[in-house]
Design a protein that fits this description.
With 142 residues, the chain is α/β, with parallel strands linked by helices. Strand 2, helix 1 and strand 3 form a beta-alpha-beta unit. The longest helix is centred in the last third of the chain and has 12 residues. The chain is globular, with a radius of gyration of 15 Å.
């Protein structure tokens, strides 16, 4: 099964958007993960609702701060025609619960969540992926 069949539409913020802009987008779209994209629509980082709680609220930072200052750097992505097993592998090896989907030019197309993968995986595969993503042990190397 291809990633394109299970991915969700992506909503992103720009690097110069504020933390408040990002939080408002999360509320309006009922999402907890927002890719941060450059002017060309290519993801450069991501922000989660947990990032906002830990890096903004808990530290007393202002809502006017640029979202890029609190984003988690780096991008873990796949292509829309990749097999869903590739997303599982990425989630396991990077210990993440969301993978961005980008076209051949690197432009953001969508997001696949752990819940999306669990919905289409066998019970055994889903359990293994969930266990590795949420584990406190060393990251998987397969």
């Amino acid at each position: 099964m291809n990633v394109e069949t299970i991915m969700s539409d992506a909503r992103c913020c720009r690097e110069d958007d504020t933390v408040h802009d990002c939080a408002r987008l999360m509320k309006e779209a009922s999402i907890g993960f927002v890719p941060i994209c450059d002017a060309a629509g290519k993801p450069v980082a991501a922000v989660t609702d947990r990032d906002l709680a830990i890096r903004v609220l808990a530290e007393g930072r202002p809502a006017t701060e640029r979202v890029s200052a609190v984003a988690s750097p780096g991008v873990v992505a796949c292509r829309p025609d990749d097999d869903v097993r590739e997303v599982e592998r990425l989630m396991r090896s990077h210990r993440i619960s969301r993978v961005m989907v980008c076209d051949d030019d690197g432009k953001l197309m969508g997001v696949v969540s752990l819940a999306d993968v669990v919905d289409v995986a066998s019970d055994e595969e889903a359990g293994e992926t969930l266990q590795e993503v949420k584990s406190d042990g060393p990251a998987a190397t397969h």
